[in-house]
Amino acid sequence: MEQKQVVIIGAGISGLVACKYCLSKGFKPIVFESMGDIGGVWAKTIKTTRLQTFKGMYEFADFPWPASVTEDFPTQHQLLNYLRSYATHFDLIKHIQFNSLVKEIDYQGPSSFSWADWSGLHETYPIGKWKVTVDNNESQTKVHDADFVILCVGRFKDVPNIPEFATGTGPEVFRGKVIHSMEYSAMEHEKAEEFVKGKRVVVVGFQKQGLDIAMECSSVNGTENPCTVVYRKDRWKLPDFSPWGIPLQYLYLNRFSELMVHKPGEGFLLSLLATLLSPLVKSCRKQRDLVGNGGCCGAGIGVGEGSE
């Protein structure tokens, strides 16, 4: 069988796994990463970020954490080193093109296929090609042909959740600086500290990243310029690991949880089972909110001077 060319967009965790899997199946993968390093959201985040999932449930099945990492919830640097070691061990780096931004994906060919044809099941494939337009760091544009495209950009990649304001009531009338948490996370750690130092900071949002940023601001400024958190709904923040002696993550990070969601090409029994289990999906999502595992890119930051 002809060796298939696969384009993978994103060199985060899912992009690295996709690249390794394609190589194991005899495909030719090429990974386009817009930043200069692997890691996705882990490559740019706030200084105090730690893994919020127990490390035993957040590791590659064929590449365990090194013995030198003894913490149950490793730091950002430890996790990045782990990902780099994984990529080096399986020789993935040579398949990654960094500072390469995908601008357009266009399929050229017939599209009247069943899901089995598109997924490659039963060794059947669409006969068309994907045209992937990429800009590199030198402002050069190149079009790549691919048999398959795998999107590994993640839930929180470059899509800030910013509310719309009526005219005269938005950030434009605020005398300080208004940024999204993604902008704060993208700063170098020293620059982020300098940005909030000596200023009064308001964090809008009560999920994990909002609270993490509020803690950082409080650590920098102390009681002289206290940080204020603004939110719409009260939430009880419970320890995620084992508030009642049982790790809650076992409820939604397991093989059984895969049966709760509908998937393309599923048969009648799987579809029926996912429908019957749908109430559990809502329950798990609510539990994740309670323990502070909600979306990590929804906080806004307002920064003003420390004096009136």
Automatic annotation (TrEMBL):
<keyword id="KW-0560">Oxidoreductase</keyword>
<keyword id="KW-0274">FAD</keyword>
<keyword id="KW-0285">Flavoprotein</keyword>
<keyword id="KW-0503">Monooxygenase</keyword>
<dbReference type="InterPro" id="IPR050346">
    <property type="entry name" value="FMO-like"/>
</dbReference>
<keyword id="KW-0521">NADP</keyword>
<comment type="similarity">
    <text>Belongs to the FMO family.</text>
</comment>
<dbReference type="GO" id="GO:0004497">
    <property type="term" value="F:monooxygenase activity"/>
</dbReference>
<dbReference type="InterPro" id="IPR020946">
    <property type="entry name" value="Flavin_mOase-like"/>
</dbReference>
<dbReference type="InterPro" id="IPR036188">
    <property type="entry name" value="FAD/NAD-bd_sf"/>
</dbReference>
<dbReference type="InterPro" id="IPR000960">
    <property type="entry name" value="Flavin_mOase"/>
</dbReference>
<protein>
    <recommendedName>
        <fullName>Flavin-containing monooxygenase</fullName>
        <ecNumber>1.-.-.-</ecNumber>
    </recommendedName>
</protein>
<dbReference type="Pfam" id="PF00743">
    <property type="entry name" value="FMO-like"/>
</dbReference>
